[in-house]
Amino acid sequence: MSADKNQRGKNLQTLEIIQFIADDVEVECRAVENVVRLLTNDNTVAFIARYRRHETGNLEAQKIRMIQESLEQVKAVESRKDSVIKSIGEKITPDIRQSLKYARSLQEVEDIYSPFKPGSKGTLANRARNLGLDKAAELISRDSNIENLSAFVQPGKKGLSSNAEVTKGVQHIIADKISKDKLACNLLKSMFENSRITLETKVREEFEKETKYKDYHQSSFSVKQVKSHQILAINRAEGEKILQVKLNCPQNLERIFLHQAERQHILISNRSS
């Protein structure tokens, strides 16, 4: 009975993935299911487009490649979910598990995992903590007067030798706290969702004749509308140094976020104290 239940769960998950890819690339589920099966059996995009048209509904190679890219994205997300679940271990709750189940991007998974990240000993924030600057960060949260930090200066000690070094260490700690706070992350998401932010791509001159990423040689996308397979392709092309990628944000967005983050950090400190 347990085996049957697990199999039904896997089948349901597969159907959800097929539906997600179908919505992502705007292709019928049956065609996506067949393409995924053919790709899983090591058939190439060119072979499927030429010899399996009856199974794909006559999809062109470009659409099949989009399905392939979306599938790769899904696999990467599912793999990361497994790693996160193992890392959280016994601390995981039903709500966290449910949130991970419905996460469809690596960023969503990382946002869920953020409060549980142990943090590398070598991070700038942890180096500052090892210098005893946690208390300084708490003080600056309650009183932004920079002179309050002078008591933490220790001439000759790296990281504490000047007011500027102490200030920088405190900034690393505060930034680390904000980046792991759910309310602060939700604030940033809300600002992005309500702002006009675009992603621009431009091919480098030496690759103008390249055709694999021709759809992105000179393009602009709203971050609200860009598809997961497009992000995957853009990231890959940028990694191969074929594309130049730029994120355009409204000029006042940084100012608004810094103001809100400062207020938010005071709330974070009060919740943790």
From TrEMBL:
SUPFAM superfamilies cross-referenced by the UniProt entry: Tex N-terminal region-like
Q: List the Gene Ontology MF annotations in alphabetical order.
A: mRNA binding; structural constituent of ribosome
- Read off the Pfam families from this record: Tex_central_region (PF22706), Tex_N (PF09371)
- In this protein, which residues make up the domain named Tex-like protein N-terminal? 16-88
GO BP, sorted A to Z: translation
Where in the numbering of this chain does the Tex-like central region domain appear?
150-254
Recorded superkingdom: Eukaryota
Record-linked PANTHER family: 30S RIBOSOMAL PROTEIN S1
Please identify the protein, giving its name as recorded. Uncharacterized protein
Which organism's genome codes for this protein? Paramuricea clavata (Red gorgonian)
